[in-house]
Amino acid sequence: MLEDTQRREGDCQIACFDSSMPQIVRMDYRRNRKDELRGIWQSWDIAKKMQFRNKYGDVAQLLFVKPDDALLKAMVRFWDPTYRCFMLNEVDMVPTIEEYSTLLHYDFKDPLRIYWKQNFDFRGPLANLMGLPIDVVKARLKDKNDPYISWSDISDAMGKACGNRHLALFTYSLYGLIVFPKALGYVSVQLANFLFQIEKGVNPAPAVLAETIISLNFIKKKGDEHFLRCAELLFVWIKSHFRCLYKHFHLVFVPSTRPIEEFLESEWPPNQSIEVWVQNLSTLIYQEIEWKAP
């Protein structure tokens, strides 16, 4: 229906509109302690992994996703900050909350319960999470525009923690280092609030999607090297819309399935150069897309 309306009424921007955005964009999405987090996950037994999945969904599967740097860099060139979507010849695409929720396989009871940032000092709750006195945590914080705690401090706390606290610290690190990276080897104190709200049944997908869009807008406008946040999830979303060689991957994202796990088990064509991706994306037609929205 929306596509029919757009064809009939045209775009909302005036015909002569020029966004004046750079065509060549550099990005920096280095894998932030990814190997160490993957090693921790692989050291767990099946029961502990299932306990994590039941509580936090499939976000840990992102540790095993190897993004195609060339594809992501090529896609950023087609990102339009005004429309907030990828404009690919005949096709305009953008991730949806439903798609990201299904990818993360997070069983939220109320889809309207979403994360909202609170103006609150979370150094105390973070100290409780780490099992340390608040004065010790405050002394270890680093100021990087916002207060941050180092991965080494979190790792030490994880080594002494067990049960739910160990899972919570792992989740805190996973979101801070992989999903929302801002500083290499450091996690924002404010993400403690994000973790606490997830544990209360809040759906993390809207926040992840919002950070992805903010990151894409910032990179496209600046045309400089910055962290592309949520890169692994964005890569899975993008690549899943292209045909894989082995038809194990489901055609549609269904909540009862585990799309990231299926993505990792599927066979995909070999990676291409940025130039080849740009050429393919600039001539993309509607029939070449496998739509995944549920």
Structure description:
InterPro entries: DUF7745. Residues 46-293 form the DUF7745 domain. This is DUF7745 domain-containing protein. The chain is mainly alpha-helical and 294 residues long. The protein folds into two domains: 32-64 and 116-201, no CATH class; 71-109 and 213-294, no CATH class. It has 14 helices and six strands. It has helices spanning 2-9, 34-43, 46-56, 69-77, 97-104, 123-130, 134-140, 151-160, 163-179, 191-199, 205-222, 231-239, 259-265, 274-282; strands at residues 79-80, 85-88, 91-93, 142-143, 147-150, 186-188. It has a three-stranded antiparallel beta sheet. Strands 4-5-6 form a three-stranded antiparallel beta sheet. Helix 4 (69-77) crosses helix 14 and helix 6 (123-130) packs across helix 7. The radius of gyration is 20 Å and the shape is globular. The two termini are 16 Å apart.
